[in-house]
Amino acid sequence: MYWHRVLTGMAALFAVIVMVFLVRANTDLARNLRDGRVEGHGPQVPAVGTLAGRKFQDESEWLPDDAGGQIGVVFGIADLGVGSAEFWSEVAARLRTRVPGAQIVGLCASEDSCDAMIDTSDAVTLLDAADPALVHALTAASRDSRVFVFRGRRIIAGITLVADRERLVQQIVAYARQPMVGAAP
Amino acid sequence: MNGWSRVLTFLMVGVTALNVAGAALYLVLDRVKQSKAQPMLPNGSLFPKFTGVDLKGAAWASRDVPCRVVRITDDNCAYCRLDQPFYDSILSAAADASCEVIEMAPRSGGIAYNPRPGVVQLKYVDTDVGAAIYPFATPQTIVLDRNWSVRMNRRGAFDERSLAGTIALLQSLAAGGAER
Predict the structure, then answer these.
(1) What is the mean pLDDT of residues A113-123?
(2) Among B75, B122, B124, B133, which would you mutate to test the A interface (most chain A Cβ atoms within 10 Å of its Cβ)?
(3) B34 touches chain A (CB under 8 A)
(4) What is residue A185's predicted lDDT score, i.e. its pLDDT?
(5) For residue B15, what pLDDT is reported?
(6) What string of DSSP letters covers A48-104?
(7) Three-class SS of residue B7?
(8) Interface check B37 vs A, CB under 8 A
(9) pLDDT tens profile B70-113
(10) CB within 8 Å: A135 and B130
(11) What global pTM score does this model have?
């Protein structure tokens, strides 16, 4: 009878350990799904290729300056459903009062969507083409109202847009205050 | 069986049931993850008429051609190197069929500049194609007809059979795409 209890107890303990493992695995998987992360590209940073593209209208190349690790936000525009011209203009203005030189970069879903944002071109860098992986990642993120925060040439986070502009700016500023880790790929 | 044994037995059965449920949930979520991470355009679906910028910075737009081969590749991809002899055969068949070949990599600079007639190497693409492809799967070969309809979408390296099928498809598209 004694051994029966010991074995039953051990089996129960083992089952609990397995359950904890499965619950954690499921939680991580659900979080990765929510954040649009791609397996094999690190637990924190979504796979986005290279931060590079072509600017709308002047057709010059856009590539963030790696030196200094300037903070920025890159997002999909209009047809992709993330923010409006007025929204991003205000976010850019508020952000730059606290982080001078912060970049706000929008990838146009079409030429029309770039035209709709043209009034913001002083505040927002508009791209009409970009790295294939970045385009893919932004398109997927935009469906969930998510944008990417970058520092230098490295994406450091994907964040969900909130209507409260001040709160969004505070989130970005918090990333700007974090120490930089590693170099650009 | 006394009280404690019953409690432990029920606990074990309950926890085992939870484990089974957890494993089932894991499988379901994994399937969802795969379907989200790897969208694939099936044959017959319409591929976006996309534009881009080539490795030299020139704007690119497709011409009216009988077929297009979109190749997602990467110089650092071992399977892409393994697949190169097969891909060379595809390039040759595409040239014979007057098809456009559009190469792109999952990151800017992922392919070295290698000019060949009828082949464009894109550095940047527009949003339309970015939404339609899964650029992290390399190598990936997509054959489009004159009307941008997907006729073949293959992930991974070719084998003899799929190579023969793709070459036959390109020949058919060059001849007017009667075979569908």
Answers:
(1) 80
(2) B124
(3) no
(4) 44
(5) 75
(6) ---S-EEETTT--EE---TTTT-EEEEEE-GGG----HHHHHHHHHHHHHHSTT-EE
(7) helix
(8) yes
(9) 999 999 889 999 999 999 999 999 999 999 999 999 888 789 99
(10) yes
(11) 0.73
Distances, alpha carbon A9 to alpha carbons A17, B9, B10, in Å: 12, 9, 11
Can you give the pLDDT at residue B127?
A: 86
Q: What is the ipTM of this complex?
A: 0.73
Q: Are B143 and B169 in contact (CB under 8 A)?
A: yes
Q: How many CB atoms lie within 10 A of CB B4?
A: 11
Q: Which residue of B has its CA nearest to A107?
A: B127
Cβ pairs A/B, distance under 8 A: 121
Residue predicted with more confidence, B144 or A34: B144
Joined together, the tokens standing for residue A103 give: 């970049």
Which residues of chain B does A107 touch, with a Cβ-Cβ cutoff of 8 Å? 127
3-state secondary structure of B174: helix
- Give the per-residue pLDDT at A42: 35
User: What is the C-alpha separation between A133 and B124, in angstroms, rounded?
Assistant: 9
- Total Cβ atoms within 10 A of residue B43: 11
- Best of B72, B107, B140 to mutate (most A CBs within 10 Å, chain A): B107
Question: B12 and A11: CB-CB below 8 Å?
Answer: yes
Rounded to whole angstroms, the maximal C-alpha distance in chain B is 84
pLDDT at A57: 84
Q: Compute the average pLDDT of residues A148-162.
A: 88
On whether the CB atoms of residues B120 and B105 are closer than 8 A, the answer is: no
Instruction: Give how far A130 is from chain B: nearest CA, Å.
Output: 4
CA distance B27 to A88: 40
Q: What percent of chain B has pLDDT over 90?
A: 60
CA distance A140 to chain B (A): 7
